[in-house]
Specification:
450 residues; 2 domains; eight-stranded parallel beta sheet
Length: 450
């Protein structure tokens, strides 16, 4: 591709307003933001006519499971990164419960090296906490490409689990950076097995992994963060009770996130979708969904994620309760949230704040998340004028399905751009799946965290 990129006549979603204008990227960085337009092409510059499109910062998904290494039939760093790019995601943070688990520096170095060969977006990785790997956690502090520590306080997919107080104290007392917690209480989960082990209706999932289970762990993790003056991020908030409690108790040390599916689905969708909607923590109830929206809007919830956790439809076909928990979502999250915005649930600027600036702020991502001169040239041009219905066959994720199949969404990215280079494109009237433009490893780099 020629040096330099110029986007003209787009509706630019700036930090303080939306205005039609031009934007230029040179050497991977935003050189000029011209709210009134007027930028003229330079020799050798690639020009995109953004007429009828909205220009957003590249979205950031700070919670994905790309299954690499270990389960290539579900996803790997290439297919997951391709799916992310198809959805306007230009940076992702990948979780450690792979095979083997990423619990030491050697495993993190291997993931970063693999991403350098496979990814088409920027990338970062969590190191997983165990009951006895504090020295390993310490060994990656400040390492480029390593975003934080992941602690599973309750059993979920994989075998990473830290729930005893002495081990949690050790981690919070002796590490730096940010700890991201899967907040479900293991003791409550274990105590409730006899009551629910014979249930085969999927409604039992939210009853078993109930709100109290989540709230106990959220309070416990928050107390640890405050006792040890440690940054804490509570992942995939699902309940109104947690959101309400955090609104009064999170303080400056604690941040939190919500998944697109918990803002979209409720108990009726679980009944209709069955195991396609099975995940941990579960999709809850309509009152939880509305409370999460409320706490997102008032700033209690800091960002939106997907918890993209693909499983094959074959593995899901065994039905509840044996089917694995998790669903794909990285390539539908931005159109889904922009559809909510076009339906009046929020604004386009809200979506940018929650999916671009928010994750960058939570994790201290340098020069990410906003259309600001000097920031990285990670961009997405989206079409808010046309609805398109997604089907399983339109997806880039290796598992080849989406829980949103049959839904009409707007805001599909026409161009996804990483460091000023186009990595995915669509035409307004062409196939929804679009075209992968960049070759694996040709663009994207380990994220730097401040």
């Amino acid at each position: 591709m020629r040096n330099g990129l110029l986007i003209q006549n787009a509706m630019m979603v700036l930090p303080s307003r939306i205005v039609q204008g031009d934007l230029r990227v040179i050497n991977g960085s935003i050189k000029t933001v011209a709210p009134q337009g007027g930028l003229q092409p330079e020799i050798g510059e690639y020009v995109i006519d953004g007429t009828g499109l909205h220009l957003l910062p590249g979205a950031i998904d700070p919670h994905v499971h790309f299954r690499d290494p270990g389960h290539p039939e579900k996803e790997d760093l290439e297919s997951g990164s391709r799916a992310a790019a198809a959805g306007g995601i230009t940076s992702f943070l990948d979780m450690p419960n792979t095979l083997p688990n990423a619990t030491n520096r050697t495993a993190l170095e291997a993931k970063i090296a693999s991403a350098a060969k496979k990814a088409v977006t920027h990338h970062g990785f969590f190191i997983g906490a165990t009951t006895n790997n504090v020295s390993d956690l310490q060994s990656v502090e400040g390492m480029d490409g390593v975003c934080g520590i992941k602690v599973f306080m309750g059993s979920s997919t994989g075998d990473l689990l830290v729930h005893e107080q002495k081990h949690l104290e050790d981690i919070f007392a002796n590490t730096g950076g940010i700890i991201a917690t899967h907040a479900e209480d293991e003791e409550r989960l274990l105590s409730r097995i006899p009551e629910f082990q014979h249930r085969t209706d999927i409604a039992a999932h939210a009853e078993y992994r109930d709100v109290e289970c989540a709230l106990i762990a959220t309070k416990r993790a928050s107390a640890l963060a405050k006792d040890h003056d440690h940054r804490l991020h509570i992942v995939h908030l699902t309940s109104g009770a947690e959101a309400d409690w955090l609104s009064s108790n999170k303080g400056d040390l604690i941040t939190t996130e919500v998944c697109t599916q918990h803002l979209t689905f409720d108990q009726d969708d679980v009944e209709n979708l069955g195991v396609r909607a099975l995940m941990n923590p579960p999709i809850r109830y309509s009152e939880d969904k509305e409370k999460l929206w409320s706490r997102l809007k008032d700033g209690t919830i800091d960002c939106i994620v997907t918890d993209h956790a693909p499983h094959t439809l074959e593995s899901k076909s065994v039905g509840f309760p044996k089917a694995p928990a998790g669903m794909p979502g990285v390539e539908t999250s931005l159109p889904l949230m922009l559809t909510h915005a076009m339906n009046g649930k929020c604004t386009v600027s809200d979506v940018v704040r929650w999916m671009c600036a928010g994750p960058a702020k939570v994790y201290g991502m340098k020069n990410k998340g906003s259309l600001i001169e000097g920031f990285d040239g990670d961009l997405t041009l989206v079409d808010l004028e046309n609805d398109r219905t997604i089907q399983d066959s339109d997806t880039w994720t290796r598992v080849g399905w989406t829980p949103f199949a049959g839904r009409s969404l707007t805001g599909w990215p026409i161009y996804t751009i990483v460091d000023g280079k186009i990595v995915h494109s669509r035409t307004k009237g062409g196939k929804l799946r679009g075209n992968a433009v960049a070759s694996p490893g040709s663009v994207g780099r380990p994220l730097i965290f401040e």
